[in-house]
Write a structure and sequence with these properties.
With 257 residues, the protein is an alpha/beta fold. The protein has helices at 46-58, 66-75, 91-104, 134-142, 162-180, 196-204, 236-251; strands at residues 25-29, 31-32, 43-44, 62-64, 81-88, 109-112, 146-149, 186-188, 209-211, 228-229. It is globular, with a radius of gyration of 17 Å. Bound molecules: zinc ion. Zinc ion is lined by residues 87-88, 150, 154, 190.
Length: 257
C-alpha cells in the first residue's frame, strides 16, 4: 500500500486495505413500482429494474448489500461487486425488487425509517406510498436483505440539534435492532443531508458505515459512502455511463476509507 494514498486527518481509519476507488458502483433506489405520478422520480418500474439487474449480471457484476461490500473490501474481494440500496422502506421493494434480486442471487440493503413502520412517505410532497411494517421488515431481513437505518422520522440531519441527532441516528439504530433481532451496521442520511456533526453522531451511535448521495469529495469516507441515483430513464447505455461516472468520481482521490 503506497503511503501517498493515505488520507491525513482521519484517525478513525482502521483498515488500510479498504480502497473505495476499486468499488465498481453503489446504486441508490427508492421504490420499485409502475406509478402514474412520480414528481420526485423515486420509482423505477419493475420491468426497468429487472433490466438493470440483468445488465449487472451480464457484465459479470454481483449486486450485494453494503455490509457484504465492506466485508469484501476488507478482504480485497470486491472488484466485481456493486452495492444495491433502497431508501425509505417501501412495501413495493419487498414485492417487486426482492424476487428479481433473488433470481440473480443478489443481495441489497434496505434503509428503513424506524418511526414510520407501516406508515407512508408523508414527508414528500407528492403521492403517498406505503412503507413496510415491522413484520414486513423482518421478512425482508429473513430473505437475506440487510436492514439499515434511514433515521427515525426522515428529517434532514445537516444542522440538526444534539437531541435530534440522538433520536434520529442513535435511537433508530436500537429500534431497528429490536425489530430484526440483529445489529444494525449501516445508516443512510435522509435526502443525503449531513454535516460533520451528523457523521460524528453516526459513528458515535456504533454504525459501521453510512451512505450519502452525491457527497463532496472531501467528505467521502466510511461515514459518507457515495451512491449514484438510478431512475426509470436508466437503460443499458446510461447504466454503463453511470458506472464510468461513479468510478471517475471516487477515483479522483484514490480514496482510502
Ligand atoms: Zn429517504
Amino acid at each position: 500500500m503506497s503511503t501517498s494514498r493515505m488520507i491525513r486527518g482521519e484517525s478513525w481509519l482502521q483498515d488500510g486495505s479498504m480502497l473505495l476507488r476499486d468499488v465498481p458502483l453503489v446504486l441508490m433506489y427508492h421504490g420499485i413500482a409502475q406509478v402514474a405520478e412520480d414528481p420526485n422520480k423515486l420509482c423505477v418500474s419493475p420491468r426497468r429494474f429487472a433490466e438493470q439487474m440483468a445488465w449487472l449480471a451480464r457484465n459479470g457484476l454481483q449486486g450485494v448489500g453494503m455490509g457484504t461490500l465492506l466485508d469484501a473490501m476488507r478482504a480485497g474481494r470486491h472488484a466485481r461487486m456493486v452495492g444495491i440500496t433502497f431508501d425509505d422502506g417501501y412495501v413495493n421493494v419487498a414485492e417487486a425488487a426482492l424476487p428479481v434480486l433473488q433470481g440473480h442471487g443478489f443481495g441489497a440493503t434496505a434503509f428503513i425509517i424506524s418511526g414510520r413502520l407501516g406508515g407512508t412517505n408523508e414527508w414528500d410532497e407528492g403521492p403517498a406510498w406505503p412503507l413496510m411494517s415491522a413484520d414486513q421488515v423482518r421478512s425482508l431481513a429473513a430473505a437475506g436483505i440487510e436492514i439499515g437505518s434511514h433515521s427515525a422520522t426522515h428529517v434532514r440531519l445537516a444542522g440538526a440539534s444534539e437531541e435530534q441527532l440522538a433520536s434520529e441516528v442513535g435511537a433508530s439504530r436500537s429500534a431497528l435492532a429490536e425489530v430484526v433481532g440483529a445489529e444494525i451496521r449501516g445508516f443512510a442520511y435522509p435526502c443525503g443531508s449531513m454535516d460533520s456533526r451528523a457523521r460524528q453522531a453516526v459513528r458515535d451511535a456504533g454504525y459501521e458505515y453510512a451512505c450519502a448521495v452525491e457527497t463532496r469529495v472531501a467528505d467521502i469516507g466510511l461515514m459518507a459512502l457515495p451512491r449514484i441515483y438510478v431512475g426509470e430513464q436508466d437503460g443499458r447505455a446510461r447504466m454503463a455511463l453511470k458506472r464510468r461516472v461513479y468510478r471517475n468520481y471516487i477515483a479522483w482521490r484514490g480514496k482510502q476509507i
